[in-house]
Amino acid sequence: MANSKSWLKICNDYKILKHDFNKAPFLLSAKQIKNSCQKFKETSEKEVRILCKQDTREERPNVFVDNNLFLLPIKNGFYNIIRGEGYVNISGINKRTKIYSSKLDFVLETSKIGNSEMQHLDYAYASSLIRTFMNDTSLVLTIRGRKYTPSFSFNVNKQKINVNSVQTEVDAGYEGKEQVVLIEAKSFATTNVIIRQLFYPYRQWQEITKKKVIALFFEKTIKNNVYSIWQFEFTNPNDYNSIRLVHCEKFEIVE
After folding, report:
1. In what order do the strands lie in the sheet with 69-75?
2. Does the model's pTM come out above 0.85?
């Protein structure tokens, strides 16, 4: 990883690897990261936002990989370094691609320009694919973009993590009569993703609504016309690692 040198210095400066991760996570601030990396020249080696963006297992620095560590934001400017499994596999869907007929009676021309998560999601929603996958015709788009979480707590292994006002981003959220469906979307193929991207929005909206909250992972690449959807659930809302795959399908939309 390009930022491995920076994280090795951070770990050495604050003696992170000598910390007993069996007792508690290691609390690290953005200010500490800046102070440790201020003499590096490249932006990618000293910018906190870039250093802390570890959305897949492969994006972790070498020192994290070697010591089975991952990073979670817990409030503005503060992070927990935790030992354990922070990611969930996005397994290949070994089913035939279903041919899905769009419910629209006209062709969407503008939706085919570009390659963004939001664009692909909007097309899938406009074609009623999201409603069909969830078997819920009442779903309407109500959530999009960045928001800050309320305070909540959860466990990783046996350690309690307290989160307060962490910024989250939902690529799209849909509310129906009985459920709220939140989607994390990618416009490129991936084999794993940090659980936080599904868990934080799930816990955030669970605090707000009494309806059932559903977490979906959505993938559509520009290389093919296949829309892949994975439905996950957390069997214990207080357990970060209780994530479980419920259902997955892949579709080709025909207009």
Report:
1. 26-29, 78-83, 69-75
2. yes
